[in-house]
Amino acid sequence: MPRKLPPFVTRERSRHGTLVFYFRKGKGPRTRLPLLGSPEFEIEYQAALAGSPPPKKAVVGVGSLKWLIDRYRDGSAYRGLSEATKKQRDNIFKGIIDKAGDVPYKAVTRKKIVDGREDRASTPAQARNFLDAMRGLFRWALEAELVSVDPTAGVKNPLRPKGEGFAAWTEDDVIAYEEKWPAGTKERVWLHVLLYTGLRRGDAVTIGKQHVRNGVATLRTEKTGTEVHIRILPELAATLAQGPTGDLAFIVGENGKPLTKESFGNMFRVACNEAGVKKSAHGVRKIGATRAAEAGATMRELEALFGWTGGTMASLYTKTADRKRLAMAASEKIENAQRPHLPGPVRGNEENS
What we know:
By secondary structure, the chain is mainly alpha-helical. The protein has helices at residues 39-49, 65-74, 76-79, 83-100, 110-119, 124-143, 171-180, 186-197, 201-204, 234-242, 261-274, 281-294, 299-306, 312-338, 347-352, and strands spanning 9-13, 19-23, 31-33, 212-213, 216-220, 227-231. The protein starts with 8 loop residues before the first strand and ends with a helix.
């Protein structure tokens, strides 16, 4: 049963289907009210009933955390970030503004930053992203002389969970997937674009014919903005020739049109599950890096191919490949040492023959 309305209040549906409420007493002005039952409704209803103008909403002004975030977004430090990073930080800042946008930014202490990290402790990746966003904000504010102390300084990242993150694909996984999705299917194109380019999802759904010149694809990565140059290997070229591919992107959906990285990730996971491979697109990138490292690619070559910087990721793969090569070499030496020595020829028999 609909809730009984207060006197002089009417309920209507907007052309968008939204429920709205209006106050009108006699032939007086018609005033829109907030949602019935909210604290704002009661305040504005009482003001309308008394014939007073509705109270003005508080304006978040200079010195608030929202004001600082808005100034940061207008600056070169923020504009220089990749689109993917800006999107990620915008989502984080939205939550912060909703919760504490009117708090004076100078009241943000190191303890509040630590508390924000601990609030997200159950998801370490979100905690790291929160810290990265706040570090970017307050390092800019310190440089702009808006604060004298950076409250994020010295705050440690949360410990990474034990394990190696996304499970890497194995050669058996590749075989199982290819058996399920033969040449000429869009699912085969999906895997081979990931496998033979080493691109992340966001870049894999972008790469197309327009990026390829003389057998080499060149594009800037979404995450870091690094320019990468990828040779189109014969296996990938053969897959692309059979298609299906799109006019602007190699990876397409049912209608032959490009996909967002989110929709592609979901569709690729379904294709993997149907092939019996319970792994993700990021795991394909890992096997690509492993293949390259085991083939002898150096750290600099891996960084150039995969768009990494800083040496950390490339070092992980080269060290693993080096350990594997050293282990194989050591095993071969042990095998040689344990192999029984064959007796040499008997010279006396040779002389008598």
